[in-house]
Amino acid sequence: MTLNLFECPSAVATGQEPLAPGAVLLRCFALADESALLAALGDVTAAAPFRHMATPGGFRMSVAMTNCGQFGWVTDRTGYRYDALDPESGRPWPRMPDSFLRLAGRAATEAGFRQFEPDSCLVNRYEAGTRLSLHQDKNERDFDAPIVSVSLGVPAVFLFGGAARADRPAKVPLAHGDVVVWGGPARLRYHGVMPLKKSHHPLLGNQRINLTFRKAG
Ligand code: MD6
Ligand code: FE
């Protein structure tokens, strides 16, 4: 892929920025697919609208979420889990769009993880003030598969921590089209997103959308 410094001011020559062993940032990797991704995103959110789920402790999450693929990540008063059915509709989640699957596979391969076949895509929507507190992704059945995370829209500061919650996280700015792939020794690191600053993106308005691809089942 050719990276154009006008469209991708943060791109370096190789396009690969190591974040930690097992974690790499692919700047602007999703830019070439942006129209297909946004069209597919519209189909997904029409079938399974964004909603604010409740944490097990009873708080409303500031991030609005939906899913596509065989399994969706959900939280309610009973805990966190993957569910094949959307609890709002009782129906299966929308199928994973081909453009999503292809992008996730290409990004994983680029990062050195072959044959990534995600069965779950969590779609997160942030608006000004929305944040995601430090957490580990550990509801998946096996930790061998990597996670591919795609940022679209308004930029955000990603917090990339260590193996313990108390480890001081690195602050990683993520912009439209950036893709983070992590697995192996980085798979269980704590991470989160700082409160989103008010900003505007020409295609997504005041929102940041994050697609998180996982092998859940
Ligand atoms: C987000 N991402 O960027 C939230 N988890 O909106 C995550 O929680 C995440 O980006 C695991 C791996 C990559 C991620
Ligand atoms: Fe996460």
Topology:
Elements: E1 16-20, E2 23-26, H1 34-47, E3 64-68, E4 72-76, E5 79-83, H2 98-110, E6 120-126, E7 132-135, E8 147-153, E9 156-160, E10 170-174, E11 179-182, E12 191-193, E13 208-214
Antiparallel strand pairs: 1-2, 2-11, 3-6, 4-5, 6-13, 7-12, 8-11, 8-13, 9-10, 9-12
The structure holds N-[(3-hydroxypyridin-2-yl)carbonyl]glycine and fe (iii) ion.
The site of N-[(3-hydroxypyridin-2-yl)carbonyl]glycine has 12 residues, from β8, β11, β12 and β13.
Written description of the protein model:
By secondary structure, the protein is α+β, with helices and mostly antiparallel strands. The chain has a single domain (16-214), classed as Alpha-ketoglutarate-dependent dioxygenase AlkB-like (Jelly Rolls, Sandwich), CATH 2.60.120. It is built from two helices and 13 strands. The strands form three sheets. It has a seven-stranded antiparallel β-sheet with strand order 1-2-11-8-13-6-3, with helices on one face. Strands 7-12-9-10 form a four-stranded antiparallel β-sheet, with no helix packed on it. It is globular, with a radius of gyration of 16 Å. The site of fe (iii) ion has 3 residues, from loops. Residues 135, 137, 191 line the site of fe (iii) ion (FE).
